[in-house]
Amino acid sequence: MAEHRVGIYPGTFDPITNGHIDIFHRALKLVDKLVIGVAANPGKSPMFTLEERVAMVRRETSIFAEEAGVEIDVVCFDDLLMHFAERVGARIIIRGLRAVADFEYEFQMTGMNYQINPAIETVFLMADPKYQTIASRLVKEVARYGGKIAAFVPETVEKEVLEKIG
Q1: Is 154 a member of any domain?
Q2: Which of 109, 115, 127, 149 would you label with 159, given CA atoms 20 to 30 Å apart?
Q3: Does the active-site annotation cover 83?
Q4: 4 labelled catalytic
Q5: What is the pLDDT of residues 138-162, one digit of tens each?
Q6: pLDDT digits over 10-63, tens only?
Q7: 45 is known as an active-site residue
Q8: Which of 44, 83, 144, 159 is catalytic?
Q9: Which of 53, 95, 98, 140 is catalytic?
Q10: DSSP per residue, 41-86
Q11: Within a domain: 99
């Protein structure tokens, strides 16, 4: 019997964007179970609470689980990614890349993670070109200054961001 492939797609998801959903959707082709790890990451001063982000990610990804026939679990974590991966039995970490700057950061992180646990592989998925400029930080900034964010996030997330901004 083939090994059950468990992967993790970690992120802050503050908020979840169409780019995140694109990577998530494509990651489902690589694993039997996908754990979406919502990082506490208080250093980033998130707009949404950890509980709100977990609920948002669950809502926006739930439809894909049935379509793909892949088990999906959305959980929060506040420890080292590699410890989280070990705890959930993951052997693959899924990361999305948008630009060269992402690669430089991810290259360093992958090297560190490999030193911690070489049994866990990191897989990079390139963002669809139409999503390569989307970043949660920029979505929030555009919204704060009255710009339209409908092209960057799902409709329900757009409403939540606009409610938070007031």
Answers
A1: no
A2: 127
A3: no
A4: no
A5: 999 999 999 999 999 999 999 999 9
A6: 999 999 999 999 999 999 999 999 999 999 987 778 999 999 999 999 999 988
A7: no
A8: 44
A9: 98
A10: -GGG--SS-HHHHHHHHHHHHHHHHHHHT-EEEEEEE-S-HHHHHH
A11: yes
